[in-house]
Design brief:
This protein is 50% helix and 9% strand. By secondary structure, it is α/β, with parallel strands linked by helices. The strands form two sheets. A seven-stranded mixed beta sheet has the order 1-8-7-2-5-3-4. Strands 6-9 form a two-stranded parallel sheet. The longest helix is centred in the middle third of the chain and has 40 residues. The radius of gyration is 28 Å and the shape is flat.
């Protein structure tokens, strides 16, 4: 007969572990999950943000002082002064080149002059040296050290205190914040899947819609806490209404969580497999989200038809769309796809601007997978952003979908303090479309044709 002896020390460890887990989940429930469910905040995250700012200021001051003492160049120049100038049109620049080269007006010039080549050659070199498109798909460079990465290109060892502070930050972020956030993320996603499946069993009606809205808001707010997201919403009176289309600039997959934690939307997207597919299938049971098969996404008429049918029903949630079609690094807004602007419905523009000092929200999908990206987000200090709800906009008489899209894009860029670019975000993985080349060719041909007409009249 075998006799088993229990070690009292092992029993003590089990008891302490049980107590620790109980305290852990109690704190989560009392200070995070319940307030998220009720939509209230104790102000802890705001205090945390202000404390971080003080630490960043001190660290940056020490960094700059140490660099000055050692005669180091701390910051990288942002642009080349040779090409930093006010933008001008092709016609104006060609005219200036011809005047300076031959002392003749454009009107008296020949059909073609060799000096015209210099304009296209210079613009090509400028595009290579200071490409305004490619750098929109890279992480925004910081002027201060946020203790996350050595973002200053010439960072050197400055002092023992700064090094200890950085090491302490690593321990806090990976030893405390990351486990806390992962726990909250699984809680929010798990509740979303479970509760939406339960609500999906109810018959369609006001009760189902009410419960669906409350469940979605609760779960998204828990997920927001999982990122320690500190969000400031402006002009809430302009929030999207049922039967409308909400369009926003796109920086990260969490843009959806940022907006949906303040109001419910009907999501639009492609059907996925795996965990994302499970979430999509559960969500669509409780709310009228619009998911497309991979083959259906290429059919623009089918997509437009389903979107039109949705917005015609004023009882359905507003549709949330990111017309850029890809993530931009939160410094700019790039070309909006015209599909969502062809539908005759009110468009509610929303501008989202992240503060990169606390954590970089930009998702470079060509560099990081979804899992590694989320881990980087959850191991940052926080996600701080501002959201502006702009007044609804409608297509004006005689305005086509492209013009309407550009007008909405300009409004979002202006409100969010972003650069308004005409380039297609598809350049992230593709080449420049022939239409852009043809546009420049047409502009130049107009100059030559105009010159010939003026000469014939004279």
């Amino acid at each position: 007969m075998e006799v088993i002896f229990f070690n009292p020390f092992d029993n003590l460890l089990v008891i302490l572990l049980g107590i620790s887990l109980t305290v852990w989940f109690t704190l989560l429930l009392v200070f995070i999950i319940v307030p998220a469910t009720l939509g209230v905040s104790f102000g802890i995250r705001r205090l945390y943000m202000k404390s971080l700012l003080k630490i960043f200021e001190w660290a940056t001051f020490r960094l700059e002082r140490g660099a000055k003492e050692k005669d180091h160049v701390l910051y990288k120049p942002y642009s080349n002064a040779i090409i930093a100038r006010e933008p001008t049109s092709l016609v104006e620049e060609i005219k200036e080149i011809r005047r300076s080269g031959s002392n003749r007006d454009l009107d008296s010039a020949s059909d073609f002059e060799m000096s015209d080549i210099f304009y296209f050659a210079r613009r090509g070199v400028e595009s290579i040296v200071d490409d305004e498109v490619t750098k929109r798909f890279n992480t925004e460079e910081l002027e201060s050290w946020n203790l996350l990465t050595r973002s200053n290109h010439n960072f050197h060892y400055i002092s023992l205190r700064l090094t200890v502070l950085w090491g302490l930050g690593v321990v806090i972020r990976y030893g405390f914040l990351l486990p806390l956030r992962v726990t909250l993320a699984f809680t929010g996603v798990g509740l979303l899947v479970f509760l939406t499946c339960i609500i999906g069993l109810l018959p369609n009606g006001r009760t189902k819609n009410f419960l669906s809205e409350k469940v979605h808001l609760m779960c998204y707010r828990i997920c927001v806490r999982a990122l320690t997201a500190i969000i400031t919403y402006h002009d809430s009176e302009n929030k999207p209404k049922n039967g409308g289309i909400c369009v926003a600039n796109h920086t990260s997959p969490i843009d959806v969580i940022i907006l949906a934690s303040d109001g419910c939307y009907a999501m639009v997207g492609q059907i996925h497999g795996g965990l994302m597919g499970v979430i999509q299938r559960s969500m669509v049971k409780a709310a009228p989200h619009i998911w497309f098969e991979r083959s259906e996404v290429k059919d623009r008429h089918l997509v437009a038809k389903r979107l039109s049918d949705h917005v015609e029903d004023k009882t359905k949630l507003p549709i949330l769309i990111f017309p850029e079609g890809t993530c931009i690094n939160n410094t700019s807004v790039m070309m909006f796809k015209k599909g969502s602007f062809e539908i005759h419905s009110d468009v509610y523009p929303v501008a989202i601007k992240y503060d990169p000092r606390f954590g970089d929200a930009f998702w470079n999908s060509s560099k990081f997978g979804m899992v590694s990206y989320l881990l980087r987000m959850m191991s940052s200090w926080a996600i701080v952003c501002s959201v502006w709800y702009l007044p609804p906009m409608s297509r004006e008489e005689g305005e086509d979908a492209v013009q309407f899209a550009n007008r909405v894009k300009a409004a979002i860029a202006r409100q969010g303090g972003l650069v308004d670019l005409l380039w297609d975000g598809g350049l992230k993985r593709g080449k420049v479309k022939d239409t852009f080349k043809e546009e420049q060719q047409k502009l130049y041909s107009k100059i030559l044709v105009g010159t010939q007409e003026d000469r014939s009249r004279s």
